[in-house]
Amino acid sequence: MSPVKKPGAKKPIYKRILLKLSGEVLMGEKTYGLDPVTVHFMAEEIKKAFDMGVQVAVVIGGGNIFRGVSASLKGMERASADYMGMLATVINALALQNALERIGLQTRVQSAIEMRQLAESYIRRKAMRHLEKDRIVIFAAGTGNPYFTTDTAAALRAMEIGADVIMKGTKVDGVYDSDPAKNPDAKKYADISYIDVIKQDLKVMDATAITLCMDNNLPIVVFDIKKNDNIRNILLGHKIGTTVGRFDD
Length: 249
Fold this sequence. Notes:
The chain has helices at residues 36-51, 68-73, 78-102, 124-132, 150-160, 194-199, 207-215, 230-235; strands at 16-21, 55-60, 107-111, 120-121, 136-140, 165-170, 175-176, 188-189, 191-193, 220-224, 242-245. By secondary structure, it is α/β, with parallel strands linked by helices.
């Protein structure tokens, strides 16, 4: 299957992207689990990028089902809790795969933990070949190691496959200097440096992920995934959300 290029469409500014989705965005208005309507919406938004000729890889969190850190704080052994969280990401990956294939896209789920009946094992060169063959690749089970978040997995996989950018879809429209839900005067950043994100502890991604991106000069765009056409408009070069990059040189 080849991408459908719309007549007159502008050329996207990125050729290959890594889309990072938190598990929470798949809940929609629910308080737990998956909302099929929301998952379908995410699939349609990804298809818009695909139709522009962009190669898309996805990393999904599992916080809508199970969050290892929270469980460990309540007494569960951390490694076991994190492995359970990795399994939650596989559930989300399979749900997104189903939604994407229902709208005609070819996909592959690659898991950092071997589970042959459900997904391929992660192999870097195989993942890149899938992208080159116009398949959406969904990376599941984080890095396969406890104590590492799916943010770190996103940064790692993005660099391994040679992605041009990490696009982090969230429930807010960018990065703020404080929580906009609690502070009506919170300031939104259009651009911010990796160092400032770490210094101000802004929770864009965890420190390991930010440091990996900084060391490899990989930009991160944080944006509202719930808004229609945001992915497409970012690819067309519109200023949406917040860009984290090397702005302090």
